[in-house]
């Protein structure tokens, strides 16, 4: 696990074991708010040990940005904290969480001790949150998944965006157009930093360029898949022929995992386009 201090009381923790997944913490005089957990208990415990030493009033809340395993499987380690999420996120975890966890444990022995812990505080759309001298605004950021939320820390102008912002936009469970709308809305927010769900913290000077590139990429994959379908290219060939580089992205980000994400994105666009024409 890597630790980074973004401002005086805001920290970001990055997994070195899986896809550079991130978690965050906002330390206040009234206690600490944690945003997401790390994919494996070992790394979440490292984060927890650091925060226990730093936080005089303890860890009060854990906020889940969305239901995906790599962001919520550490919930069970925060025994004294309330878990907060959108209503939609809790509902997805309630319906399919146990089944998914059982399957994950079979594939990944490191998850053996994980217990699914559902959020116990939920909100429908938006929520404001005051703790110590910090104001946090929780807002919907759909597109990667329908249940995604972001946490905006007022004053610091930092947004924890969950997987709505990643080194490569990822829509396999989501919606391309909805994600583009979300990314455009982020451009209007006058942010200092965006903490991505995976990868490096984005700085003010690179925000517009990064968000524009993500929006353009989502247009690019749509146009290229549509063109290939017009020439009756098979799904297999289409996925191999539309490269990441041809849509303006390097294949090395996230230790090369972006190549896999790109293929999944192409399949998602293919499914959406072929479903419409049937």
CATH homologous superfamily descriptor of the largest domain: Ribonuclease Z/Hydroxyacylglutathione hydrolase-like
Q: In what order do the strands lie side by side in the largest sheet? A: 1-2-3-4-5-6-7
Any low-confidence stretches, pLDDT <50, length ≥5?
none
> How far apart are the termini?
47 Å
Domain module tally: 2
Describe the structure.
There is one protein chain. The protein is an alpha/beta fold and 278 residues long. The protein folds into two domains: 2-215, Metallo-beta-lactamase, Chain A (4-Layer Sandwich), CATH 3.60.15; 216-277. The chain is 38% helix and 22% strand. The chain is built from seven helices and 13 strands. It has helices spanning 41-54, 69-72, 87-107, 176-187, 204-230, 235-241, 257-277; strands at 2-7, 10-14, 22-28, 31-35, 59-63, 82-86, 121-123, 127-131, 134-140, 149-153, 158-160, 193-195, 201-203. The strands form two sheets. A seven-stranded mixed beta sheet has the order 1-2-3-4-5-6-7. A six-stranded mixed beta sheet has the order 8-9-10-11-12-13. Strand 11 (158-160), helix 4 (176-187) and strand 12 form a beta-alpha-beta unit. Helix 6 (235-241) crosses helix 7 (257-277). The longest helix has 27 residues, at 204-230. It is globular, with a radius of gyration of 19 Å.
Features:
278 residues; alpha/beta; Metallo-beta-lactamase, Chain A; 7-stranded mixed β-sheet
């Amino acid at each position: 696990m890597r630790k980074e201090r973004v401002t005086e009381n805001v920290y970001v923790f990055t997994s070195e074991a899986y896809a550079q997944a991130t978690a965050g913490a906002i330390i206040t005089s009234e206690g600490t708010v944690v945003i997401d957990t790390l994919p494996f208990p070992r790394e979440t415990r490292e984060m927890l040990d650091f925060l226990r030493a730093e936080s005089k009033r303890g860890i009060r809340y854990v906020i889940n940005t969305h239901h995906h395993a790599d962001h919520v499987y550490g919930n069970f380690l925060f025994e004294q904290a309330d878990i907060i999420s959108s209503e939609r996120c809790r509902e997805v975890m309630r319906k399919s969480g146990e089944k998914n966890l059982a399957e994950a444990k079979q594939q990944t022995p490191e998850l053996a001790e994980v217990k699914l812990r559902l959020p116990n505080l939920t909100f429908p759309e938006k929520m404001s949150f005051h703790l110590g001298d910090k104001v946090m605004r929780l807002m919907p950021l759909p597109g990667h998944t329908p249940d995604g939320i972001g946490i905006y820390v007022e004053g610091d102008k930092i947004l924890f965006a969950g997987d709505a912002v990643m080194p490569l936009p990822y829509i396999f469970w989501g919606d391309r157009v909805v994600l583009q709308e979300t990314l455009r809305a982020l451009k209007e927010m006058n942010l200092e930093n965006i903490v991505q769900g995976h990868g490096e913290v984005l700085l003010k000077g690179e925000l517009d360029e990064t968000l524009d590139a993500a929006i353009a990429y989502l247009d690019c994959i749509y146009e290229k898949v549509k063109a290939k379908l017009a020439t009756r290219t098979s799904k297999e060939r289409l996925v191999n022929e539309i490269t990441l580089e041809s849509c303006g992205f390097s294949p090395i980000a996230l230790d090369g995992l972006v190549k896999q994400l790109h293929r999944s994105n192409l399949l998602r666009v293919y499914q959406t386009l072929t479903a419409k024409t049937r």
